[in-house]
């Protein structure tokens, strides 16, 4: 796994074996950040279900001011810490250990990225409902094309869905 672009372009990141996390493929990450290119500079970013931290680190590499990494798996937390330290990004990052549905409310971010691991697909609805109560500027859910997410969760409404192979990126913003 590597960083696609920005300040840390082509730098390798440590990975986690097994299926405790669901890594975001390089091509999906590249497509995501190409769509976010005008919004990422200076933004605050949440990488929920962070795994290795690759998505949040990509955001920092491309100019995000700060990133929150939400993760409950102990091996993943260690990997995020190592990846941040290898790039000297500790001061621009906050790691919150625990369940995303508990830690998400503590992150005042403008952009929230959700990608629960394989066994937690039922958490999409809970996380989006939680965000819909106090919506960020943008919430993005990476999910299987076979998983049908609702068009609205509270004040969040889907504005766009982009498919990449078996993955989809659903973009949600506050109505109005």
Description:
The protein is globular and about 40 Å long. Strand 2, helix 3 (74-87) and strand 3 (93-97) form a beta-alpha-beta unit. The chain has an eight-stranded mixed beta sheet. By secondary structure, it is of the alpha/beta class. The protein has one domain (26-174): Vaccinia Virus protein VP39 (Rossmann fold, 3-Layer(aba) Sandwich), CATH 3.40.50.150. The protein is 27% helix and 26% strand.
What integer is the average pLDDT? 92
Number of helices: 5
Return residue spans where pLDDT drops below 50 for at least 5 consecutive residues.
none
Number of domains: 1
CATH architecture tag: 3-Layer(aba) Sandwich
Morphology? globular
Provide the CATH topology.
Rossmann fold
Biggest β-sheet: count, sense, barrel?
8 strands, mixed
User: Using DSSP, what is the number of strands?
Assistant: 8
Helix proportion of residues, in percent?
A: 25-40%
Estimated radius of gyration: 15 Å
CATH class: Alpha Beta
Key descriptive features of the protein:
globular; 176 residues; Rossmann fold; alpha/beta; eight-stranded mixed beta sheet
Quick synopsis:
The chain has 176 residues and is an alpha/beta fold. The chain contains five helices and eight strands; from the N terminus they run αβαβαβαβαββββ. It is 27% helix and 26% strand.
How do the strands and helices of this protein lay out in sequence?
Blueprint: H1 26-36, E1 44-48, H2 54-61, E2 66-71, H3 74-87, E3 93-97, H4 100-103, E4 111-114, H5 123-133, E5 138-144, E6 152-153, E7 156-164, E8 167-174
Parallel strand pairs: 1-2, 1-4, 2-3, 4-5
Antiparallel strand pairs: 5-8, 6-7, 7-8
């Amino acid at each position: 796994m590597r960083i696609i672009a920005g300040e840390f372009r082509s730098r390798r990141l440590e990975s986690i074996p097994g299926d405790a996390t669901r890594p975001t493929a390089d091509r999906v990450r590249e497509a995501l950040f190409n769509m976010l290119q005008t919004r990422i500079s200076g933004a605050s970013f949440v990488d929920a279900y962070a795994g290795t931290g690759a998505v949040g680190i990509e955001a920092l590499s491309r100019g995000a001011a700060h990133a929150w990494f939400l993760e409950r798996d102990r091996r993943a937390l260690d990997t995020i810490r190592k990846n941040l330290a290898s790039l000297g990004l500790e001061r621009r990052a906050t790691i919150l250990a625990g369940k995303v549905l508990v830690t998400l409310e503590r992150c005042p971010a403008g952009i929230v990225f959700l990608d629960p691991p394989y066994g937690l697909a039922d958490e999409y609805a809970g996380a989006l409902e939680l965000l819909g109560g106090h919506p960020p500027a943008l919430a993005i859910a990476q999910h299987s094309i076979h998983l049908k997410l609702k068009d609205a969760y509270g004040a969040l409404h889907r504005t766009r869905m982009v498919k990449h192979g078996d993955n989809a990126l659903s973009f949600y913003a506050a109505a109005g």
